[in-house]
Design a protein that fits this description.
membrane; MetI-like; 13 helices; MetI-like_sf; MetI-like fold; dipeptide transmembrane transporter activity; mainly alpha; Peptide ABC transporter
Length: 315
C-alpha cells in the first residue's frame, strides 16, 4: 500500500513539473510583446527596453522558467503587469468565487445524475429509462454558456427571482453569495449531469448481471434493494472516474460561464489576462487549473484503492 502511494505521489510531482514547463513554453510562444502592448505604439525604444528589463523579458527562456518555478515553490507568483498587485493575492481573492461555484456545480450534478441513472437502470427499456435518456442527451448537447443565457432570461429578466449577474461578495452574507452563484452552478451542472447519468446507468446495468446480485435476489431481496445495496456500491468506480473528470470540464466551462454572469472568478481572470497579455497572471492561473485537475485525478486514484481492495495488492 505504501509503495503504491509513493509511486502515485512521485507521478503527481513529475506530471506537475512537466505541465509547468509546457505552460511556460506555450505562453512564451504567444504572439505579441507584453511590454509593447502595455506601453502602446507611441513608446520609445528606450522606454520599451527598460520595461522589458523590469519584466525580465530580456533573460533567456530557461533562466525565466527557473526563476518562475522557484517563485511558485516559495509561494511568490510574481507581480501582475496589469493590476500592479501580487498575483497570489489576486488569485486567492478570485478563488473564493470559483471554488464554491465548482463545488456547487459538482454537488448538483451528482444529486441529479446518480439517482436518475440508477432509476433508469432499474427501469431499463421502460418509459422512465427512455425519458431519462432523452433528458441526458439534450443536456449533453446544449453548451453551458447557452444554458446560462436561458436561465438569465427566465429567472432574472422574466421572473425576477434571481440576480442576472455579478457577485456581491461573501461579506454581504452567505445567502446573497449563494443566490449569485446558483444560476451559474446550474448552467455548469446540467451538461455534466447528462454525461454522469449515462455513465451511472451503464455501470449499474453491467453490475446487475453479476452473480452476487442474482444471489441477493434469490435470497429474497427485492429488485430495488438489490440495485441500491449491491449494484450501485460495486458500480462506483466508473462513476467516481467521471466525477473526477468533470472538474476538467467545469474549469473549461467556468471561463465562459463566469463571463456570461460577470463573476469575478478565476475563469474571468484568465480571460481578462489573455486579452491584456498579462503573461504572468495567465501562467499562474493556467498552472493552478492544471494542478487542480492533476490533483483531482490523484484523489480519484486513491478512491480506487478504497473502493476496490484488489488494487491494493502490488503487481
Amino acid at each position: 500500500m505504501i509503495a503504491i502511494l509513493t509511486r502515485q505521489v512521485a507521478s503527481l510531482f513529475v506530471t506537475l513539473l512537466v505541465v509547468s514547463l509546457l505552460i511556460f513554453t506555450v505562453m512564451d510562444l504567444l504572439p505579441g510583446d507584453p511590454a509593447a502592448i502595455m506601453l502602446g505604439t507611441s513608446a520609445t525604444p528606450e522606454t520599451l527596453a527598460a520595461l522589458r528589463t523590469q519584466m525580465g523579458l530580456d533573460q533567456p527562456l530557461p533562466v525565466r522558467y527557473l526563476a518562475w518555478l522557484a517563485g511558485v515553490f516559495q509561494g511568490d507568483l510574481g507581480q501582475s503587469y496589469t493590476y500592479g498587485v501580487p498575483v497570489a493575492g489576486l488569485m486567492a481573492e478570485r478563488l473564493w468565487v470559483t471554488l464554491p461555484l465548482a463545488l456547487m456545480a459538482v454537488t448538483l450534478s451528482i444529486a441529479i445524475a446518480v439517482p436518475l441513472g440508477v432509476q433508469a437502470a432499474y427501469r431499463h427499456n421502460g418509459p422512465f429509462d427512455l425519458l431519462a435518456g432523452a433528458i441526458s442527451y439534450v443536456s449533453i448537447a446544449v453548451p453551458a454558456f447557452w444554458v446560462g443565457l436561458l436561465l438569465i432570461i427566465l429567472f432574472s429578466t422574466t421572473l425576477g427571482w434571481m440576480p442576472a449577474g455579478g457577485f456581491p461578495g461573501w461579506d454581504a452574507g452567505l445567502l446573497a453569495g449563494f443566490q449569485a452563484l446558483l444560476l451559474p452552478a446550474v448552467a455548469l451542472a446540467l451538461p455534466q449531469a447528462g454525461v454522469l447519468t449515462r455513465v451511472s446507468r451503464a455501470a449499474v446495468l453491467e453490475v446487475m448481471n453479476e452473480d452476487f446480485v442474482r444471489t441477493a435476489r434469490a435470497k429474497g431481496l427485492g429488485e430495488r434493494g438489490a440495485v441500491w445495496r449491491h449494484a450501485l456500491p460495486n458500480a462506483l468506480i466508473p462513476v467516481v472516474t467521471m466525477i473526477g473528470l468533470q472538474f476538467t470540464f467545469l474549469i473549461a466551462g467556468a471561463v465562459l460561464v463566469e463571463n456570461v454572469f460577470n463573476l469575478p472568478g478565476l475563469g474571468r481572470l484568465a480571460y481578462q489576462s489573455l486579452a491584456q497579455r498579462d503573461i504572468i497572471v495567465m501562467q499562474d492561473v493556467v498552472l493552478f487549473f492544471s494542478a487542480l485537475v492533476i490533483v483531482m485525478n490523484f484523489v480519484v486514484d486513491l478512491a480506487y484503492l478504497v473502493l476496490d481492495p484488489r488494487l491494493r495488492v502490488p503487481a
